[in-house]
Specification:
Layout: H1 10-18, H2 26-36, E1 41-44, H3 51-65, E2 76-79, H4 83-96, E3 104-107, H5 114-121, E4 126-129, H6 131-139, E5 150-154, H7 156-161, H8 165-172, E6 180-185, H9 190-199, E7 204-207, E8 218-224, H10 230-239, E9 246-249, H11 253-265, E10 270-273, H12 279-290, E11 296-299, E12 314-317, H13 325-331, E13 341-347, H14 352-362, E14 367-368, H15 382-386, E15 395-396, E16 402-403, E17 417-418, E18 424-425, H16 432-445
Parallel strand pairs: 1-6, 1-7, 2-4, 2-5, 3-4, 5-6, 8-13, 8-14, 9-11, 9-12, 10-11, 12-13
Antiparallel strand pairs: 15-16, 17-18
Helix pairs in contact: 2-3, 3-4, 6-8
């Protein structure tokens, strides 16, 4: 199958040919015709399989066919969860639509609003935006969304994870009811489908891979290590090929900066990207990493979406993500477009539970390979990582009786009576006679064995 067979116009085909694209990916082949036919779409596919082109190409064609010099308000809106993804999507749109008369731009936080206001006043056809900054412009009456005919939610699951649901509802409330809505994501949680049911019209679902699956070309390895030796193991892993481009994920902003300084002290060319960095700093760090000026990029999960790096060979989870789905998005930065990739996870004893969650999500084991010289003082067994979560152990009181602790209300949940000072006194054991009388009273209350009325 070729792009010509999907019904795309010559201007788009020319732009694709100039970028070296000849054959559509499965998600593009399945989604583009349905979008051009006007259907609402819920599309899911692995990260790196061309989801952006699957909605951008038909969207550009429909906008170009209905372009009007008198239109002053956006006719298409694409919402993304992060600044990096918004910039990346807009870069792709400009490349695909270079031979069309479609005016487009991106608005997101971290930069001044002046330039964005001027762009909106010029009357764009298409706007790529993050929800927060778009609401800022709505509140200042800088943009009118009443003319939006096409809405795209890119990485909708990530928007929910990041708490954008109230913002999405606020934006949806000012959009026309009659519109075409496209929802694209790498994963589909039940909450996503419930959300879609509220604002989409009989959407067609296009699922090109097993939910939460990762690219088949990615090799996964788990290196168990004591927590206090993680940094040394990371240095060892990076030193094995110091010229290899490596994306390292840390859990916190402070931890990212600290790790970045540690790597710099040991001679690595490294940069950090996270939410406390200004947009200019984040853009510069990403650009330096893409062009090879730095070989290591330390990032929080903000970088798990929107980083489109050609032939990124390796991703390292210095810290495992707190949400198992984020592992899919992190690893999606490597092994893109059929290339091979390496995913390494440095797992401390405190992260065993997170590893179990990841393996349950992927429904496959991850190879556990201790690194010589960094063997931990504990043992991580594959079967233990795959086992279901253990039930909380029951505590025993000094007399050997099982107790279940205190309830959330602060009252003892084992039937003991609490004193005004919060101490619990065990109740006295009942005699067999007391038990028999209690059982007899219970039967009488239930209407069984009750004496006949006199």
């Amino acid at each position: 199958m070729s792009f010509e067979s999907l019904g795309l116009q010559p201007a788009l085909l020319r732009a694709l040919a100039e970028q070296g694209y000849t054959d559509p990916t499965p998600i593009q082949a399945a989604a583009i015709p349905q979008v051009l036919d006007g259907h609402d779409i819920m599309a899911g596919a692995q990260t790196g399989t061309g989801k952006t082109a699957a909605f951008a190409l038909p969207l550009l064609q429909m906008l170009d066919a209905t372009t009007s010099e008198s239109a002053r308000n956006p006719r298409a809106l694409i919402l993304t969860p992060t600044r990096e993804l918004a910039a990346q999507v807009h870069d792709n749109i400009r490349a695909y639509g270079k031979h069309l008369r479609v005016r487009s731009g991106a608005i997101f936080g971290g930069v001044g609003m002046g330039g964005q206001v001027q762009f909106l006043r010029r009357g764009p056809d298409l706007v790529v935006a993050t929800p927060g900054r778009l609401i800022d412009h709505l509140q200042r009456r800088n943009v009118d969304l009443s003319g939006v005919r096409w809405l795209v939610l890119d990485e909708a699951d990530r928007m929910l994870d990041m708490g954008f649901l109230p913002a999405l509802k606020q934006i949806l409330a000012v959009l026309p009811k009659q519109r075409q809505t496209l929802l694209f994501s790498a994963t589909f949680a039940p909450e996503i489908k419930q959300l879609a049911a509220n604002f989409m019209r009989t959407p067609r679902e296009v699922q090109m891979a097993t939910p939460n699956a990762v690219a088949v070309g990615v090799t996964h390895r788990v290196h168990p290590v004591d927590g206090d030796r993680k940094r040394d193991l990371l240095l060892h892993v990076l030193a094995a090929d110091s010229r290899r481009q490596t994306l390292v994920f840390a859990r916190t902003k402070h931890g990212s900066d600290k790790l970045c300084r540690h790597l710099e002290q040991h001679g690595f060319r490294v940069a950090a990207i996270h939410g406390n960095k200004s947009q200019n700093q984040r853009t510069r760090a990403l650009a330096d990493f893409k062009n090879g000026r730095t070989t290591v990029l330390v990032a929080t999960d903000i970088a798990a979406r929107g980083l489109d790096i050609d032939q990124l060979p390796a991703v390292v989870n210095y810290d495992l993500p707190m949400v198992a789905q984020d592992y899919v998005h992190r690893i999606g930065r490597t092994g893109r477009a059929g290339a091979e990739g390496l995913a390494l996870s440095l797992v401390s004893r405190e992260e065993e539970g997170l590893l179990r969650d990841i393996q349950r999500l992927l429904k496959q084991p991850l190879a556990v390979e201790p690194v010589q010289g960094f063997e931990p003082a504990w043992t991580l067994r594959p079967e233990r990582a795959n086992a279901p979560a253990a039930k909380p152990a029951q505590r025993r009181n000094p007399r050997g009786r099982k107790t279940s602790g205190w309830s959330k209300a602060g009252k003892p949940s084992n039937g003991n009576r609490a004193t005004p000072h919060g101490h619990a006194h065990p109740q006295h054991s009942r005699t067999q006679k007391d038990v028999a009388n209690a059982n007899r009273s219970r039967r009488n209350r239930n209407g069984r064995n009750r004496a006949a009325p006199r």
